[in-house]
Design goal:
The chain is α+β, with helices and mostly antiparallel strands and 110 residues long. 36% of the residues lie in helices and 20% in strands.
Amino acid sequence: MNPVTAKRTLQRRGDEIRKSHPRPQVETGNHGKMLAIDIETEALQIDASEIGACSRLEARHPDAQIRIVRIGSRLRRFGGRTFTQDAIVDTGFNGWLSLPPNLITQLNLR
């Protein structure tokens, strides 16, 4: 599997697992914290930092394939309307920000 396909598979699988867990169970008291998801075992770990979440998850699952999500990030739309959007943290950050098409539309971005 090439690196781009592998990354997309990791993202897709992590998002599927994240959406399968009830939001209140994961989000209550955890807004702004990092959620580490092992796409192999579906184990979750929440911590204030990305490193903490990953380290604690890897302690339980040494071969974890980890997807990271910031829980309940708040974004402000032009015009002052506020809504919640999970933010994806990509450890390969290269200076560009990728957003889902529906969010680009909501924010009136081009």
